[in-house]
Structure prediction request, 92 residues.
Amino acid sequence: MNDTPKYPTDLFIGGAWRDGSRDKRIAVINPSDGSEIGRVANADAADAIAAVDAAANAAASWAATPPRKRSEILYKCFELMTRDAEALARLI
Prediction:
Protein backbone atom coordinates (compact mmCIF):
# COMPACT_ATOMS: atom_id res chain seq x y z
CA MET A 1 0.00 0.00 0.00
CA ASN A 2 1.25 3.48 -0.87
CA ASP A 3 1.61 5.63 2.28
CA THR A 4 0.57 8.82 0.47
CA PRO A 5 -3.20 8.86 -0.08
CA LYS A 6 -4.37 9.95 -3.52
CA TYR A 7 -7.62 11.29 -2.08
CA PRO A 8 -8.36 13.19 1.14
CA THR A 9 -8.93 10.83 4.05
CA ASP A 10 -9.92 13.31 6.76
CA LEU A 11 -13.35 14.80 7.53
CA PHE A 12 -14.54 17.81 5.53
CA ILE A 13 -16.58 19.91 7.95
CA GLY A 14 -17.41 23.59 7.67
CA GLY A 15 -15.23 24.11 4.62
CA ALA A 16 -12.07 22.60 6.12
CA TRP A 17 -10.40 19.21 6.33
CA ARG A 18 -9.84 17.91 9.86
CA ASP A 19 -9.01 14.76 11.77
CA GLY A 20 -11.75 12.74 13.37
CA SER A 21 -12.21 13.09 17.12
CA ARG A 22 -11.12 9.52 17.71
CA ASP A 23 -7.38 8.87 17.75
CA LYS A 24 -7.19 5.79 15.57
CA ARG A 25 -8.00 5.81 11.85
CA ILE A 26 -10.24 3.19 10.24
CA ALA A 27 -8.73 0.71 7.81
CA VAL A 28 -10.40 0.47 4.40
CA ILE A 29 -10.35 -3.15 3.28
CA ASN A 30 -10.51 -4.44 -0.29
CA PRO A 31 -13.31 -7.03 -0.11
CA SER A 32 -11.90 -9.05 -3.00
CA ASP A 33 -8.64 -9.96 -1.27
CA GLY A 34 -8.83 -8.61 2.29
CA SER A 35 -5.90 -6.24 1.81
CA GLU A 36 -5.81 -2.82 3.42
CA ILE A 37 -6.06 -0.15 0.72
CA GLY A 38 -6.19 2.94 2.92
CA ARG A 39 -7.04 4.51 6.25
CA VAL A 40 -9.68 7.16 6.89
CA ALA A 41 -10.62 9.45 9.76
CA ASN A 42 -12.54 7.84 12.60
CA ALA A 43 -15.48 10.11 13.42
CA ASP A 44 -17.66 10.09 16.49
CA ALA A 45 -21.01 11.64 17.41
CA ALA A 46 -19.39 15.05 18.05
CA ASP A 47 -18.00 15.04 14.49
CA ALA A 48 -21.44 14.17 13.11
CA ILE A 49 -23.04 16.98 15.10
CA ALA A 50 -20.36 19.42 13.89
CA ALA A 51 -21.04 18.37 10.28
CA VAL A 52 -24.81 18.79 10.64
CA ASP A 53 -24.33 22.17 12.35
CA ALA A 54 -21.98 23.33 9.57
CA ALA A 55 -24.49 22.24 6.93
CA ALA A 56 -27.31 24.04 8.73
CA ASN A 57 -25.19 27.19 8.98
CA ALA A 58 -24.42 27.02 5.25
CA ALA A 59 -28.06 26.56 4.25
CA ALA A 60 -28.97 30.26 4.38
CA SER A 61 -25.96 31.23 2.27
CA TRP A 62 -26.76 28.49 -0.27
CA ALA A 63 -30.41 29.58 -0.41
CA ALA A 64 -29.30 33.17 -1.06
CA THR A 65 -27.07 32.08 -3.95
CA PRO A 66 -28.75 32.89 -7.27
CA PRO A 67 -30.31 29.83 -8.95
CA ARG A 68 -28.05 30.17 -12.01
CA LYS A 69 -24.92 30.06 -9.82
CA ARG A 70 -26.26 27.07 -7.85
CA SER A 71 -26.93 25.22 -11.11
CA GLU A 72 -23.38 25.97 -12.30
CA ILE A 73 -21.95 24.59 -9.06
CA LEU A 74 -24.09 21.45 -9.21
CA TYR A 75 -23.25 20.91 -12.87
CA LYS A 76 -19.53 21.20 -12.06
CA CYS A 77 -20.02 18.55 -9.36
CA PHE A 78 -21.73 16.34 -11.92
CA GLU A 79 -18.85 16.83 -14.38
CA LEU A 80 -16.24 15.96 -11.76
CA MET A 81 -18.14 12.89 -10.56
CA THR A 82 -18.59 11.73 -14.16
CA ARG A 83 -14.92 12.32 -14.93
CA ASP A 84 -13.82 10.43 -11.80
CA ALA A 85 -16.56 7.77 -11.82
CA GLU A 86 -14.12 4.86 -12.04
CA ALA A 87 -11.99 6.10 -9.15
CA LEU A 88 -15.08 6.88 -7.06
CA ALA A 89 -16.44 3.39 -7.71
CA ARG A 90 -13.19 1.88 -6.45
CA LEU A 91 -13.50 3.91 -3.24
CA ILE A 92 -16.91 2.46 -2.44
Notes: Residues 11-91 form one domain. Helices lie at 45-64, 67-83, 85-91. The beta strands are 11-13, 16-18, 26-29, 36-40. The chain has a mean pLDDT of 91.
